[in-house]
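Changelog entry

Holo records now carry the ligand SMILES as an explicit input line rather than a separate metadata file. Below, a converted record for coenzyme A, shown in the new format.
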Amino acid sequence: MRCIADSAPGPALVPSDLPDPGVSLRGFRATDVPFVAAIVADALHEHYDPSLYHSLSAEWPDGFLVAVDPRDIPLAFLLGVCQVPREARILMFAVDRPWRTRGIGHRLMSTFLQRCRDRGYRRVTLEVRVSNATAIRFYTRFEYSVVDLLRGYYSDGENGYQMARPLP
Ligand SMILES: CC(C)(COP(=O)(O)OP(=O)(O)OC[C@H]1O[C@@H](n2cnc3c(N)ncnc32)[C@H](O)[C@@H]1OP(=O)(O)O)[C@@H](O)C(=O)NCCC(=O)NCCS
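Structure line, unchanged by the conversion:
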């Protein structure tokens, strides 16, 4: 499972912690699959069997966060797993294009990190394409740092970075 991301240049950045009105966070539901799969296809260029979302959600329901609009339509999500004791790994994280740079990614990441702390996790890891400057900048703001270069990690041959942050 790779955390794949596009490498499109990001927009001009204006830091903002203001929550987007009408957008709320909740847990993953079976009816979210078509929406999540569409975000994954567009943002991460991947196509997974729907059963994957169900099985990963069942392993750690609180690690699968979905942001929804006022009609309860998913517009972003963060899917984390626990494969190493006391350590979380972010497998997928994406915000649908029209909803980016509104602080929704910030809300998802902040909430996810708090859930990791609540479970006593000590570290969070993730993988990102070396070309994905937008995501790398985002993660760096969240105190992730590069811990490894993953040569040829992605199916098209691109290198990845493994990034990690401790959880105090
Ligand atoms: C990476 C990603 C998840 C970030 O989500 P997002 O919702 O855009 O994130 P935020 O809005 O919280 O923050 C993004 C930037 O916009 C800025 N921003 C926040 N609110 C803003 C606003 N109202 N106006 C302008 N900029 C704003 C933030 O300061 C932040 O800057 P930073 O990256 O330098 O910290 C999103 O770009 C994405 O889905 N990318 C494609 C998929 C991807 O790369 N996933 C990661 C795979 S490893």
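Spot-checked after migration. The pocket of coenzyme A is lined by residues 3, 5-6, 13-16, 43-44, 93-95, 100-106, 126, 128, 132, 134-135, 137-138, 141 (CB under 6 Å). Strands lie at 24-27, 64-68, 74-84, 87-95, 123-129, 145-150, 160-166.
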